[in-house]
Backbone:
């Protein structure tokens, strides 16, 4: 392969550049999983063969610190829940899910988010990562702190699980993931009304699991369809008990910018941003419907966006789709430690990494989004 000048290098799309680096691997570079370097005579680490400097590759791959955990995490991470569940709800081909997981590692992603509740996602991750050295990836998983039972009159009764059930859930996750320690163990989808009881009943047990070395850090995630204004996370941040939080911050709900993100930054709490594009932004008809509904409800000015293709104004100057614009918007705040991409599709994964490592959204588009969506926090739930 011929040597390329630094000027040419920067015009390569990041994922392609990564492929070039990996194609010609000789020696493993210590810092990033999947990258390979060999020292050269000028003392700068270069990829063997293609000669791209590792400094250039590293500058394209962005890593951030996950708050007080001090874990260095890729700014883009892979989610195994959502409407895809790493392919379980789309192609249903576990071998393909494994390829997505390994492609993520190759692209520099070192963080995987999963949950006991995500069908077989924990098992799939466990099987896919079995041969991968444990120091090359981080696992964030979750347990469900509530249970729903039928009441005497057929109604649904929700209650908080017992400390013993929490321990069992943790043990099952460790077994399914085939690991000895969970990097981040999260209370999954807690509603504001359940928050206090969850903490009082279950946090001491979670702390005991931490002391036993079964988990490293503790986090909490919101249920954003039922809690679009992030009331639970506001409570959690007042308590200052959590190493990480998981929030939705995206074009269709930017309200985390009002208090959750600034508070998390001030307290050095790690922030996972989930569902930045889910689900309306990936489904053009539903996107049009929800914008129309929000206009009728008086949340959006009638003339602020067109009825047809309301967010297509984002597509220009290197932003190739509404989804790409949505992910770019979601990764932008400094308070976001990592943006979760929930996909079971290798092409989508590569497109998303390319898009997220590229330039940010133009300021004018960012301003327009803030003008249109910046004053309300509404749920998208009704068509889920
Ligand atoms: N309360 C909680 O704790 C909670 C709630 C929600 C999510 N999460 C976590 O956050 C992760 C991310 O959230 P998410 O999966 O809801 O949202 P997301 O990443 O915003 O959206 C995922 C959806 O977008 C599609 N997609 C991805 N890239 C695409 C592309 N380039 N073009 C077109 N479609 C694309 C995926 O389908 P394909 O598979 O076809 O790509 C999937 O349907 C989850 O996987 C989960 O780990 C946690």
Residues:
């Amino acid at each position: 392969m011929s040597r390329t000048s630094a000027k040419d290098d920067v015009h390569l799309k990041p994922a392609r550049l990564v492929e070039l680096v990996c194609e010609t691997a000789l020696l493993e570079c210590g810092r990033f999983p999947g990258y390979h370097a060999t020292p050269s005579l000028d003392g700068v680490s270069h990829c063997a063969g293609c000669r791209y400097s590792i400094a250039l590759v590293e500058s394209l791959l962005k890593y951030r610190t996950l708050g007080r955990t001090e874990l260095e995490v890729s700014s883009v991470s892979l989610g195994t829940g959502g409407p895809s569940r790493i392919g379980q709800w789309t192609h249903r081909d576990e071998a393909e899910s494994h390829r997505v997981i390994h492609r993520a590692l190759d692209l520099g992603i070192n963080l995987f988010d999963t949950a006991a509740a995500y069908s077989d996602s924990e098992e799939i991750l466990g099987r896919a990562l079995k041969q991968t050295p444990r120091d090359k990836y981080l696992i964030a998983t979750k347990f469900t702190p509530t249970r729903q039972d039928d009441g005497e009159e057929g109604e649904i009764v929700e209650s908080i699980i017992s400390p013993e059930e929490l321990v069992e859930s943790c043990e099952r996750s460790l077994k399914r993931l085939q690991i000895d320690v969970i990097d981040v163990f999260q209370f999954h989808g807690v509603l504001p009304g359940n928050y206090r009881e969850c903490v009082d009943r279950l946090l001491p047990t979670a702390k005991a699991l931490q002391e036993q070395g079964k988990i490293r850090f503790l986090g909490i995630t919101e249920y954003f369809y039922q809690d679009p204004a992030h009331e639970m996370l506001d409570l959690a941040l007042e308590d200052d008990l959590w190493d990480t939080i998981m929030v939705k911050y995206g074009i269709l709900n930017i309200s985390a910018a009002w208090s959750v993100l600034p508070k998390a930054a001030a307290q050095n709490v790690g922030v996972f941003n989930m569902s930045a594009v889910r689900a309306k932004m990936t489904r053009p008809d539903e996107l049009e419907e929800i914008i129309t509904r929000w206009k009728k409800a008086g949340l959006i000015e009638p003339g602020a966006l067109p009825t047809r293709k309301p967010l297509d104004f984002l597509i220009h100057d290197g932003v190739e789709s509404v989804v790409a614009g949505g992910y770019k918007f979601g990764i932008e705040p400094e308070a976001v430690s990592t943006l979760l991409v929930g996909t079971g599709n290798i092409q989508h994964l590569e497109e998303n990494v390319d898009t997220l490592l590229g330039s940010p959204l133009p300021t004018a588009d960012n301003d327009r989004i803030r003008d249109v969506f910046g004053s309300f926090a509404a749920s998208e739930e009704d068509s889920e």
